[in-house]
Write a structure and sequence with these properties.
Layout lengths: L2 H4 L19 H15 L4 E6 L5 H11 L5 E7 L5 H11 L9 H17 L3 E7 L7 H10 L3 E2 L2 E2 L1 E7 L2 H7 L2 H6 L2 E5 L4 H14 L9 H11 L3 H17 L7 H11 L2
Parallel strand pairs: 1-6, 1-7, 2-3, 3-6
Antiparallel strand pairs: 4-5
Helix pairs in contact: 2-3, 4-5, 9-10, 10-11, 10-12, 11-12
Length: 266
């Protein structure tokens, strides 16, 4: 709607996990390195925690885009109150196995066969569980832990990557065996002010826009209001561009940024 006015090839601040817009802050780059290490070195499992909107899902999508599709079979679950059997069925469904009428024991048998088939074909198995903190049911967390029991020749046949809000750390710690299996861990914090400004410029650059589209005062307002959370910064910047488009403004100045912040609080 406003792209032509601002000379953009795309909306740079969509709140969708588009890997093209991934911003490599130092902590995000470290998290990417750790996740790739977990997967490529067969470490078994990783726990990536962080506040809402800090880039966990985006990071996972970047990893999936980075990996050679010929070498990996991946399932990606966004957790939403699945029962233990539904959780197992969804994994199998994403691997092309229909299991509507089978009980838990049969499901686990199918999973074992599925993982073994992947391994025999020279492919590693990856399971990503997003919003893992919603798995408040201890049985489901136990089911996740049991996935890491599938081993052959002292090697894990599956890598489990848990993504969740900060409370997932305490949930996992409550199961010492599970916590010990998730040998790679990291927590994503907020961006600092300098990183937040760089984030704005990066996304504008990817969309072929001017990096000085926001005045310094406008950037300061947006960065302070977002408190280092990329998703909040996206929303504020997007609203600023829309407001500026409506007023045919040449730049996003302090007044437009202030109005965008005010609108976000209503």
């Amino acid at each position: 709607m406003y792209e032509q006015h601002w000379g953009l090839s795309d909306k740079p601040f969509r709140n969708t996990p588009d890997p093209h817009y991934f911003f490599f802050s130092p902590q995000h780059e470290e998290a990417l390195t750790r996740m790739l290490y977990c997967i490529l070195e067969g470490q078994g499992g990783m726990l990536l925690s962080g506040e809402v909107g800090c880039g966990k899902t985006m990071l996972a999508r970047v990893v999936l885009d980075t990996l050679d599709a010929e070498r990996f079979e991946a399932a990606y679950l966004t957790y939403s109150s699945l029962s233990t059997e539904e959780f197992l069925r969804e994994i199998l469904r994403q691997f092309g196995v229909s299991t509507l009428q089978h009980n838990r024991a049969r499901l686990l048998s199918y999973l074992s066969d599925c993982f073994a088939a992947h391994q025999a074909a020279g492919r590693a198995t990856l399971i990503f569980v997003d919003e893992a903190q919603l798995a408040a049911d201890a049985d489901t967390l136990e089911e996740m832990r049991l996935l890491m029991n599938f081993q052959q020749d002292r090697q894990f046949t599956v890598s489990l990557i848990l993504l969740g809000q900060p409370e997932i750390r305490e949930m996992v710690k409550a199961s010492p065996q599970f916590h010990q299996r998730l040998t790679v861990r990291m927590h994503l914090g907020a961006l600092n002010a300098e990183e937040s400004r760089a984030y704005l410029h990066h996304r504008l650059r990817v969309a072929n826009g001017r990096e000085d589209l926001f005045t310094a005062a406008a950037e300061t307002l947006l960065v302070e209001a977002a408190q280092g959370v990329p998703r909040r910064l996206n929303g504020l910047a997007d609203m600023s561009l829309l407001l500026g488009y409506g007023k045919k403004a040449p730049l996003i100045d302090e007044d437009l940024a202030r109005q965008a912040v005010a609108d976000s609080r209503n």
